[in-house]
Write a structure and sequence with these properties.
The chain is α/β, with parallel strands linked by helices. Strands 2, 3, 4, 5, 6, 7, 8, 9 and 10 form a nine-stranded mixed beta sheet that branches. The two termini are 29 Å apart.
């Protein structure tokens, strides 16, 4: 019998040399320290590894390092602090954003708001009425606040839309804006970008409130009326000052042309700050950055693949999916690429650089599946652990 021997060398892990990478490594260590037991630390690593490795199909039974029941207990029952994990990640994000402060002209912090549906099929009795039909889509509907400044971009927070008779998407968006720390609002000029769902009278008025003092660039429907009775669709000049019905202060109007189903569609945009028409258009188009985030979070990091039977389990699934997205994005920045972002490549590199033990355990498990093939060819697989 011949032997195929794989020798594994384990040595003390050292801090990674690159500034971003070393900071992310410290963050990951901090997250693991929040777990009460070694077992839960290992499960956290396994869940993050599952999100980074599964290419949008991360479900617990695909995990190579922990059982489906172990992951279920970790998400639904174990007593670890989800809030502490969120605070730790936010503190890290805040430090990165504040590092973008420079002398002279300040960078603009873009706060992008949108509602997305995490589509689901079947019955979800355990989620009460959270999984519901809205805009002809069945699923969990969440309003997300997404930050963009310089090379940094982050999902900051989200709220679940619970349907008619509860807080509307624009009301949820105002609650999300309240989660922005004052050091951010004082350090950067803030542009709030959103579609027509956020172009309500109360939302626009709140942006002008002294406690907010943000500028808004928001979509409005073409049927929206002015104080003189005209519809915005009747206007012909970009950038002109107008008074919307219900507002006692002026806004500035423009429009963008978008392709929908092979046709050009005219979408109107207003700014609460005086801007030229072309400038409003440029900022209005930046709202669509969040659509790319939604696509990536769902199809690469499995944001919509939750199947837990408790609200806590679903909430933790969403949080850890977003953390995995951030880890991959920071590894992309570490690699120094600022053009085409290959999320699959970045996720794989994050797995290699941040969670090598999870990748290794997954590979060993797959190698063991080849034992019948080894025996068939007169070979035997041996794993030898050596200390250095």
């Amino acid at each position: 019998m011949e032997y195929v021997i794989i020798v594994l060398y384990f040595k003390q892990r050292t801090m990674l040399p690159h500034p971003i990478l070393s900071q992310v490594d410290e963050l990951l260590c901090s997250l693991k320290e929040l777990m009460p037991t070694i077992y839960q630390k290992e499960t956290l690593e396994s869940v993050l590894g599952l999100f980074l490795h599964s290419q949008g199909n991360a479900v617990p039974h695909h995990c190579q390092t922990k059982s489906e029941s172990a992951i279920s207990r970790f998400l639904n029952h174990y007593n670890w602090s989800t809030r502490s994990l969120i605070r730790t990640v936010r503190s890290f994000i805040l430090n990165l954003v504040l590092s973008e402060r420079i002398k002279g002209r300040k960078l603009i912090l873009q706060v992008i708001l949108d509602l997305t549906t995490l589509e689901k099929v079947g019955k979800f009795v355990h989620l009460k009425e959270l999984v519901r039909v809205y805009n002809h889509k069945k699923g969990l509907h969440i309003v997300v606040l997404y930050l963009v400044i310089g090379n940094w971009r982050f999902p900051w927070s989200f709220r679940v839309y619970r349907g008619k008779g509860t807080s509307s998407p624009s009301q949820l968006a105002l609650k999300l804006l309240n989660t922005l720390p004052s050091i951010l609002t004082k350090s950067f000029p803030i542009y709030v970008l959103g579609d027509t769902a956020f172009g309500t009278i109360k939302f626009i008025e709140k942006l002008r409130d002294s406690s907010f003092n943000h500028h808004g660039i928001l979509g409005i429907p073409n049927t929206r009326k002015l104080t003189d009775g005209r519809k915005v669709s009747e206007l012909k000049t970009r950038g002109q000052q107008v008074y919307l019905n219900g507002l006692n202060f002026p806004v500035f109007l423009s429009w963008v042309w978008l392709k929908r189903d092979g046709k050009r569609v005219k979408r109107f945009v207003i700014s609460t700050k005086p801007m030229k028409g072309k400038t409003i258009v440029r900022w209005g188009k930046r709202r669509w950055q969040i659509e790319g985030f939604f696509k990536t979070a769902k199809h690469q990091f499995s944001l919509h693949r939750f199947g837990q039977k408790t609200l806590l389990g679903v909430y933790r699934w969403l949080i850890l999916s977003l953390v995995s997205y951030l880890l991959a994005y920071w590894i992309y920045l570490h690699n120094g690429y600022f053009d085409d972002l290959d999320w699959y490549d970045s996720a794989e590199k994050a797995l290699v650089l941040l969670l090598p033990q999870i990748l290794l355990l997954s590979l060993i498990k797959k190698l063991k599946l080849l034992n019948p093939w080894f025996y068939k060819h007169g070979l035997e697989l041996c794993l030898v652990r050596c200390k250095m």
